[in-house]
Amino acid sequence: MDKPNYFLMNPFEKFFYKTGKAIKRFPGAFVHFFVAIGLGIGRFFKGIAGGIKNYFVNFAKGNAATKGSYVVMGLGHAVRGQVAKGLVYLLIEISFVLYMVMFGAPYLGKFFYGFFSKGTVGITETHDFWNDDLGIYEKVVGDNSFKIILYGILTIFMIIFFLAIYLRSLKESRELEEMAKDGKRAVTFRKEAAQLMDTKFHITLLSLPMLGLFVFTVVPLVTMIIIAFTNYDASTEVPQHLFRWVGFENFGAIFGENSTLNGTFLRVLGWTLIWAFFATFSNYFGGMIVALLINKKGIKFKKLFRTVFVMTIAVPQFVSLMIVSKMLTAGDSMEMSGILTQLLYKIFGFQLKFGINITHTRIAIILVNMWIGIPYSMLICSGILMNIPADLYESARIDGAGPVKTFMKITLPYMLFVTGPYLITTFIGNINNFNVIYLLSGGGPGDLLKYSDGAKGTDLLITWLYKLSLGTDRNYKLASVIGILVFIISATFSLMVYNRSSAVKKEDQFQ
Amino acid sequence: MIYNEETNKPVRRRDKFKNYQTGVFTAGMKMRNRISNGFTYFILVVLNIIAITPLVYLVGQSFRAEAGAWSSTFFPKTWTLANYKRLFTETPFLRWFGNTLFVAVISCLITTAFVLAVSYAFSRMKFRMRRPMMNVMLVLGMFPGFMSMTAVYFLLKILLPNHFQSLASLIIVYSAGAALSYYVAKGFFDTVPKSLDEAAFIDGATRSQIFWKITIPLSKPIVIYTVLISFIAPWCDFIFVSFIMSGVPDVGMYTVSLGMYKWLEREQIQQYFTTFCAAATIVAIPITGLFIWLQKYYVEGITGGAVKG
């Protein structure tokens, strides 16, 4: 088979050729991704194995003080003159033991109580207890399943962190022993503290942000991922009830063939992808064209034109989107409708059924999104367009190329090349574009025949997730399954970027 | 061979381009240019009008004297300032505005500090956990941010038992995860020449001195970008505030977006639509002004982010 000659293609062929190649490469990339994950996990376990080996070897080789630090952390440090550091380690050990005894262990026990047998999360349910002495029913407050999962996760992380600190202290203690043998003196505590501002500055910089990230992103996220494997919803609301582990049942319900939930999910997913596609490309090309028009030679008032466009992004979205949504609303009569709907009817005789007809609403949403999206991509495109070497255009002009040809042969290929990663991140951003959908249509209009579980005609996965966790059903289990699926979709698309973008590969060389 | 139209003598090759640019074709080219420029102006003006229409409508409606949500004319028939008067005297709008401003300022300070610290560490420091941390954060960023809210809500209930539906919770929600959005600032720090660091290093400066005295003063655009983005976020957010404040009876706790959203709900819209427009105008003016004033930095930030992906 002939290899297509890349240089003879027109830009569109080039674009499709590249896209095709990227798609063809995708299964390989996908496999590569999981192989990489596998290798990572392998390396992780190898590291652990090495750690365990060191653990025993150091114990065998170490002297009494080092051996002592295996039980009392920081002993080795204290003996070698690092008293303050030794005390810190001791304090960490004591607080960890206290945490585990008072708090961690009971929750961890309840976490794993029904984990393998698909039992309940927690042991005793809140119930009424007949008190014979008083002759009344007493309320016995039982376990709180959600708390058990939350604290269970927290405890597992705590154990991992503690083990890491523990192993590190042992390693240091052994090193101190070796240093003492060579007759070197240990670094003083003050010097070590000073290093936090110098060679170990990253610890100072990262500790608070990472703590925030850990407590308010990582732990909650892992907790909600775990919820996907339980039956937590309004019927098992905590603390009145316990919920159960159900394995992959929730995923089964979504992917089960011919179930109503499956139909709803596919419809919402379909619209999410259609929306993301149109929202991304309409804004991208629209923005590029507007940028070209504004930057055209001989056009005056560039700044004024640009500022007017920028105003639509500057006004907070909840203001601009809600006012437009009210301008488009179709009420029971024309007098009860928004001004744009009225004007459309008066001038063109067209009856816009925004919020009544699904197709009308969808098209209107995509158009309104162009209104707030085009100025944004115009700003990005302007910056990049300025970077296209001017002599390219000059020589094209001398060769007699018209504006359309110049656009097709120079501008578009250059833009697609430079902004490829941006397009995909925008696509992912649009999959998660809560504001535009929720503030414009609230996800409506509904269609009870086609949609179940609170989803409506213009709902994206993300707005559906929001409704599921705030609605009357409080369907947390389904919400978290949807969240996981959104993650898988986003990850798949990001994978395409990170395989292609050379910036990521070269990141380390660049350093 | 090309001949000059007037003198009928052959044109020297050297002059060919000269003519192309200045001479013989000028009249036709000028005409064409004028038409295409005129066309461009036309399109730009039309697009500008479309872009500005809803905002003009919003401001117009805020001066409307007729009650009710729906009007049959684009501009009000009678103009009045009563909506603004009502906004400041009869509604908790001023409190909402104060709440939002408070949350925005504090969370903007925390967010900026976090983002700059994390991106500097990832850009300039070498340490063993650098790559793994960046990879984990990449993966975390792919989950929808809202997904973890139920658990965050629970956590806040535990940490602030009596005040979990408060402005403090909102600040935590807006700024605790700030580290995740380090990409743009890291990309910027990567472009600050390393030789400056090395020179300071040789002179005996520590890492923190380099950070404060060299990198930060050189990074004004990215600092302003981060401040701008994080200051505006609470004004525009609806999803998190509506979740945290769900079921709060005291409307005085709301931020502008939540409070104003409630005005447009079915039961209230007839009564509050024009008030909403007045409030929206008041909120939009400072934010828009800020945005247009700092436009340059905003554009630099988003373009840098887009090119690096």
Descriptive notes:
The complex is a heterodimer of chains A (about 500) and B (about 300). By secondary structure, chain A is mostly helical. Chain A has 3 domains: about 1-45; about 60-245; about 260-500, MetI-like (MetI-like fold, Orthogonal Bundle), CATH 1.10.3720. Helix content of chain A is about 70%, strand content about 0%. Chain A has 20 helices and 2 strands. Chain A has a two-stranded antiparallel ribbon with strand order 1-2. Chain A is globular, with a radius of gyration of 31 Å. Chain A starts with 10 loop residues before the first helix and ends with a helix. Chain B has 2 domains: about 15-85, no CATH class; about 85-310, MetI-like fold, CATH 1.10.3720.10. Chain B contains 15 helices and no strands. In chain B, about 70% of the residues lie in helices and about 0% in strands. Chain B is flat and about 70 Å long. Chain B is mainly alpha-helical. Classes of the chains: A mainly alpha (about 500), B mainly alpha (about 300).
How much helix, percentage-wise, in residues of chain B?
over 70%
Largest beta sheet of chain A, briefly? 2 strands, antiparallel
CATH fold field value of the largest domain in chain B: MetI-like fold
Arrangement of strands in the largest sheet of chain A: 1-2
Question: Which terms summarize this structure?
Answer:
heterodimer, A: 511 residues, mainly alpha, MetI-like fold, 3 domains, two-stranded antiparallel ribbon, 20 helices, globular, disordered C terminus, B: 309 residues, 15 helices, 0% strand, flat
Task: Give a quick summary of the entry.
Chain A is mainly alpha-helical and 511 residues long. Chain A has helices at 11-61, 64-69, 75-79, 83-113, 145-181, 189-195, 201-227, 249-255, 260-294, 302-314, 317-328, 339-348, 358-387, 390-398, 403-431, 434-440, 461-470, 476-500, 502-505, 507-510, and strands at residues 127-131, 136-140.
